[in-house]
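Hi support team,

I submitted a single chain yesterday and got back a structure, but I'm not sure I'm reading the token output correctly. Could someone confirm the output below corresponds to the sequence I sent? I've pasted both exactly as they appear in my results page.

Thanks,
R.
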Amino acid sequence: MAEKSTRTARGTIICDNTTMALLKANDYVAEAIRREMDRRGVLLINLTSSPGSGKTTLLQETGKRLKDVLRIKVLVGDLETERDAERLREAGIQAWQIVTGGICHLEGQMIMQALENISLDDTDVLIIENVGNLVCPASFDLGEDYRVTLLASTEGDDKPKKYPRMFFTSDLMLISKSDLLPHLPFSVDRAIQDARDINPDIECMTVSALTGEGMDAWCRWLVDRFEQKRRSKKPEESYDVE
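Hi R., thanks for writing in. Yes, this is the structure output for that exact sequence:
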């Protein structure tokens, strides 16, 4: 089994009892999803960021580069419209849109419902493109193996310490839109240092889906994590998602 990514301190979130019950219920569903992905040997990635940080563009380019290497499918979360899923389909990636109708994050039960409508038999990697938000998605485990968070150069380098829970629960930080760095007051070193002050284990890469900078490293990271997941797959294990 691949090492679980979301290191949230379950049960320590300061909230009222109703919210606590919701998070505990979500954890139960997330664990069922994780077991099913482990049984199938499917790598599950939870991709998070602020709105407009380049998640969909990154996935478009990732799909093009890995189309002959990995069978990738994507679940896209947005408050409204199917635009991002359409963009991914145009790039040749099988994608399904989850419309939350105003909810600012995806939850385990949403992913469970979506999985009822897709086949994972021909899937190596399932990527969840979460709703653009650095706050709410940080608290919801979706059963992922790894959480990857984009920090765009256009956002400013101070985000890791302003939104610490997201970076604490992430395994990889991608500093996106690196092609704009020469034109912006963004310090890559400062952003990485702040992220590692919060989470010493977080990996960091700088990427540009437009120029291709860092894309080879990112794609290699995905392939390596998938191969690790498949090596750890135990055929004798059987879990029921229901």
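A quick pointer for reading it: The two ends are 20 Å apart (CA to CA). Let us know if anything else looks off.

Best,
Support desk
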